[in-house]
């Protein structure tokens, strides 16, 4: 028995005449009669009583009616689900991010925008240590990652910058450099102990400019943990400028770095040849969004 048999049966049950049902279905009355007879043979009992005035359901037909209607409705629902899935309108999207993607305010609008357009796609966003995100994307456990740049990824991945930023230095508030009116030169930090964030590029570029090897005291990972250690006076940290805007931690002061800005930012990472429609939709959205460029000043010490 095929789906068309159920549709023919329902049309006949609704119109109570084969001629009217056939017209609604766009087939000839004899063809409909043959299909109904085939169906009755498959069921093993008459489904309709025939008379000159029309047709009526037999008791077996009455019992069969709700099951036939449920079968057609289930198929139609499955068809809609399949069509939505093919257009990326349903499914699940797994996103991994580092904390600064939220602190900078670049992740939230992307998720809000996508939810409004695709409300039936389930978004699962979780914070991860930065070094875990790219391998999880390659393995298929994450679909998109938001990490701190600069970053290099394999040939199977692609990136899109969503925030352009630069590094500054976080100092304990009692540090002598806090009171200096000028930006902090790289050489001023030569004898400091460094608290290393997840993205250490800024620290090593400062050391290169100052011609010293950084003395790494600890590598706590997340930026909130880095600033906590700075507040406790255990060292200094080279961190993204955006944190000087969003964090006001007692015991921490932020200073500009002298010289050419050391670039960083938030980068979205995803599979280059993504085929899952819901993920493709999110990637299209990302690529259509220009990078946010930080401007103005943060909470810098004089």
Task: Describe the model.
- There is one protein chain.
- With 302 residues, this protein is an alpha/beta fold.
- The protein folds into 2 domains: 3-86, Orthogonal Bundle (Arc Repressor Mutant, subunit A), CATH 1.10.10.10; 88-302, D-Maltodextrin-Binding Protein, domain 2 (3-Layer(aba) Sandwich).
- It contains 11 helices and 12 strands.
- It has helices at residues 3-15, 18-25, 29-43, 59-86, 99-103, 107-117, 130-139, 201-210, 223-231, 243-246, 277-287; strands spanning 48-51, 54-57, 91-97, 121-127, 144-149, 157-172, 193-197, 215-221, 237-240, 252-255, 263-271, 292-293.
- Global outline: rod-shaped
Number of strands: 12
Encode the helix/strand succession as letters.
HHHEEHEHHEHEEEHEHEHEEHE
Mean pLDDT equals 89
- The figure for the number of domains is 2
CATH class of the largest domain: Alpha Beta
Q: Percent of residues in helical segments?
A: 40-55%
Main beta sheet strand tally, sense and closure:
8 strands, mixed
Q: What is the count of helical runs? A: 11
From the alpha-carbon coordinates, what is the Rg to the nearest angstrom? 33 Å
Detail the poorly predicted runs.
none
Topology-level CATH name of the largest domain: D-Maltodextrin-Binding Protein, domain 2
């Amino acid at each position: 028995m095929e789906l068309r048999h159920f549709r023919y049966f329902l049309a006949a049950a609704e119109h109570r005449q084969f001629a009217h049902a056939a017209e609604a279905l766009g087939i000839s009355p004899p063809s409909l009669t043959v299909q109904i007879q085939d169906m009755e043979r498959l069921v093993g009992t008459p489904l309709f009583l025939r008379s000159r005035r029309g047709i009526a359901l037999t008791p077996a037909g009455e019992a069969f009616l709700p099951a036939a209607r449920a079968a057609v409705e289930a198929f139609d629902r499955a068809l809609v689900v399949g069509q939505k899935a093919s257009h990326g309108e349903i499914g699940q999207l797994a996103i991994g991010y580092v904390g600064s993607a939220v602190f900078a305010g670049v992740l939230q609008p992307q998720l809000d925008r996508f939810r409004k357009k695709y409300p039936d796609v389930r978004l699962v966003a979780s914070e991860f240590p930065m070094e875990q995100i790219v391998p999880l994307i390659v393995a298929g456990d994450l679909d998109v990652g938001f990490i701190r740049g600069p970053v290099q990824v394999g040939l199977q991945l692609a990136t899109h910058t969503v925030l352009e930023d630069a590094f500054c230095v976080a100092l304990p508030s009692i540090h002598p450099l806090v009171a200096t009116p000028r930006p902090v030169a790289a050489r001023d930090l030569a004898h400091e102990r460094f608290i290393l964030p997840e993205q250490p590029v800024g620290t090593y570029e400062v050391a290169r400019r100052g011609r010293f090897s950084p003395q790494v005291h600890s590598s706590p990972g997340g930026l909130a943990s880095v600033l906590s250690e700075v507040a406790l006076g255990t060292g200094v940290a080279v961190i993204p400028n955006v944190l000087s805007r969003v964090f006001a931690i007692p015991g921490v002061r932020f200073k500009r770095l002298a010289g050419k800005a050391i670039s960083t930012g938030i980068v979205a990472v995803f599979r280059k040849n993504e085929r899952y429609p819901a993920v493709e939709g999110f990637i299209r959205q990302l690529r259509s969004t220009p990078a946010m460029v930080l401007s103005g000043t943060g909470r810098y010490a004089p």
